[in-house]
Amino acid sequence: MVISMTGFGRAKTESQFFSVNVEVKTVNHRFCEMNIRMPRQLLKIEDKLKKKLSQQIRRGRVEVYVSVEGEGVVTRKVHVDWNLIDEYYQFINEARSKYRVEGTVTIHDLLGRSDLLHIEESEVGNEELENLVLSATEEAVQFLLQMRMAEGEEIKKDLIAILAQLENDVFELQKYAPLVVQSFKERLTKRMQEFLNGQLDETRILTEVAVFADKADINEEITRLKSHIQQFLQTLKSQEPIGRKLDFLVQEMNREANTIGSKANDSNIAKQVVEIKSLLEKLKEQVQNIE
Question: Are residues 59 and 141 located together in one domain of the fold?
């Protein structure tokens, strides 16, 4: 099955006290890498989230964003430094007496100083909240998978179309292959006739042609190319993640195309090789998007 590595899913779950929003985004990556951002009191369920995600997502960079709203998410507590307040108050009174400065210390003077009084916030864990997060994550992943599968179907259609063109080019390549040796034999015969004034050494010609035919033979590469194309098509039907295998097959097809281009000294074959490598580049670009 062709599944794209790019997708997005969002879900929201609510209870009487909490509202949880989860967004899951995936992009291309060679391996499976997860990055989860959520409130600190939920860090203890991070492993559960990763396990749930890894059951559905095998490859790609996964970004998860969890936001929580509601009462009880954060507890607040007033922290007062009484010792410092006592010293501050005492200093004000001493300064007023010593320097004969009029005025009094009011409650507003004390409340306005953050070093004397501040509010501490702490996040607390909650089983109900954790279940809401897990549920929202599962729902968001389902939306994500739907998008990845829909995009994967479009990629599959494009891949099949490219492979059909590739098969045609390989077929044309196969037709030209026997003509290379015949063309070489004719050129060699003509040159030897000119050089030897029409007196030919048939044995030498056959030997040279045989040596050239062995060096320029591309039938083995064509056979492997055709085999790789069929393996590619069969792999598209697999229910397992196929991205890495398809990437390997594209590399092997590129290897065969390069070998054909270097072995066959023929303009028609060179033209077909250029076309094949162009199609293989398109295959490679699409395969990079597959899980």
Answer: yes
Q: What is the band of 121 on the pLDDT scale with cuts at 50, 70, 90?
A: low
Decide: 28 and 6 in contact? Cβ < 8 Å: yes
Its pTM stands at 0.70
* 70 phi-psi bin (left φ>0, alpha ψ -120 to 50, beta other): left
Calculate the CA dihedral of residues 78, 81, 87, 90 and round it to 10 degrees: 20
User: Tens of pLDDT along 25-61?
Assistant: 999 998 899 999 998 878 888 999 999 899 999 999 9
Q: What percent of the chain has pLDDT over 70?
A: 76
| Within a domain: 2 | no
pLDDT score recorded for residue 61: 95
Q: Residue 219 burial by CB count (10 A; 0-12/13-18/19+): exposed, middle or buried?
A: exposed
Residues 169 and 252 in one domain: yes
Which domain, by its residues, includes 110? Answer: 74-123
The answer to whether residues 176 and 268 touch, using CB atoms and an 8 Å cutoff, is yes
**Residues 113 and 134 both lie in one domain:** no
260 three-state secondary structure? helix
Residue 95 and residue 11 share a domain: no
Sign of the Cα torsion 78, 84, 86, 89 reads negative
Domain assignment of residue 1, yes or no = no
